[in-house]
Task: inverse folding
C-alpha cells in the first residue's frame, strides 16, 4: 500500500490570522509530506504489511511480525502521518458545532470553558514535542492526555476526537516559543467546538 499526503481540506490561508499561511505550507507540504514519504519507505521494506492500513498498523503495532526498529520507525513516521491527517480535519475556517459532543463535554467537565482550560493546561505542561488528545477510551468515556513525539492513541485502543500539535514546527514561525499564544489562537479554528 502506498500512502499519500491528503490535500488540506481548505486553502493554506483559510485559518488566518490564527494559523498563518507560511506555517500551514511548511507544516502540511513539508513536514507531513516527510512523514508520508518515510512511512512509504519503511513499509516498502516490510512485505508482511503490504496490505495493512495505517490505522491497523498503529492499533496493532506491538504485535506486528516486524522487528523493533521497524516498529519504532512506524510509530514515529506512520504516527506522524496519521496524526497530521486527523489534525487538518479537526480545524476549519468556519465553525460547524457538534452539539452532542458539546453536551457530553459539559456533562463531564462542568462547562466547555473548564474543558478548554484542562486541555490547554495539559498542552502547556507537556515537555517537548508531542500532541494533546481528546479521546474516547474503550468504555466510550472522554479523556484528555498528552502523548510524546508522534505516538497515536490508536496504539492504546483509544479513538481520537480532537488533537493539538505541540511540536514547535506547528507554531514557531508565528508564535516563536510562546506556546500559550498558539494554544489560545488555535481554539478559534477548532471546527466543531464553539
Ligand atoms: Mn506537526
Result:
Amino acid at each position: 500500500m502506498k500512502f499519500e499526503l491528503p490535500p488540506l481540506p481548505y486553502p493554506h490561508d483559510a485559518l488566518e490570522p490564527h494559523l498563518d499561511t507560511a506555517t500551514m505550507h511548511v507544516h502540511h507540504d513539508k513536514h507531513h509530506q516527510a512523514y508520508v514519504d518515510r512511512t512509504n519507505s519503511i513499509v516498502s521494506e516490510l512485505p508482511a504489511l503490504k496490505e495493512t492500513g495505517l490505522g491497523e498498523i498503529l492499533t496493532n503495532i506491538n504485535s506486528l511480525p516486524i522487528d523493533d526498529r521497524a516498529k519504532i520507525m512506524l510509530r514515529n513516521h506512520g504516527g506522524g502521518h496519521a496524526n497530521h491527517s486527523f489534525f487538518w480535519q479537526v480545524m476549519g475556517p468556519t465553525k460547524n458545532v457538534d452539539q452532542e459532543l458539546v453536551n457530553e463535554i459539559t456533562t463531564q467537565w462542568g462547562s466547555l470553558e473548564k474543558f478548554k482550560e484542562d486541555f490547554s493546561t495539559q498542552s502547556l505542561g507537556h515537555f517537548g514535542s508531542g500532541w494533546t488528545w481528546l479521546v474516547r477510551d474503550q468504555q466510550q468515556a472522554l479523556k484528555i492526555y498528552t502523548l510524546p513525539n508522534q505516538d497515536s492513541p490508536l496504539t492504546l485502543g483509544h479513538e481520537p476526537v480532537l488533537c493539538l500539535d505541540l511540536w514547535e514546527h506547528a507554531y514557531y514561525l508565528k508564535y516563536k516559543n510562546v506556546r500559550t499564544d498558539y494554544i489560545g489562537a488555535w481554539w478559534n479554528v477548532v471546527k466543531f467546538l464553539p
